[in-house]
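Re: the 179-residue chain
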Amino acid sequence: MNICVFLSAADLDERYTVPAREFARLLGKAGHTLVWGGSDAGLMKVVADGVQEAGGRLVGVSVEFLSHKARPGVDEMVVAKDLAERKALLLAKADAIVIMVGGTGTLDEATEILELKKHGLHGKPVVLLNTAGFYDGLKEQFRRMDAEGFLPVPLTDLVFFAEDGVAALAYLEESAGIR
């Protein structure tokens, strides 16, 4: 399965890097392909390292203005002209999406993917991996949107909230009929 992971390229604390590395190893060991922003920095590097070390494939989608940070030695690397094209390519190459910790870029990617799913423009499973409670506030906001009628489909049809990588991968594999 090609699993797109949206996440930060920043260097982060161990409370984020250790679970990210564990999740990456699970993906690689299970034979999945990581589809990600292609960066060889920060948390993106941690995840790519983990997947590759465990035997998984790497498919990167960088963007022209960040191509100097692209990871060498991957199975496939595409360089998009801008962020909009990058998001479209990441979604096109993915069978499923995992949203890990990140900043405004990750939040932008997450909301666009959920908006497209809400409108039926893709039906791929989406997991929000809530490492160390990072997305507790966003999770609460989504629940409020759902409860107050702002979502035309149930929240559970849009996104699965996972507290750890084991639960995230189990959900994705079950959604794909692997488990």
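The two ends are 13 Å apart (CA to CA).
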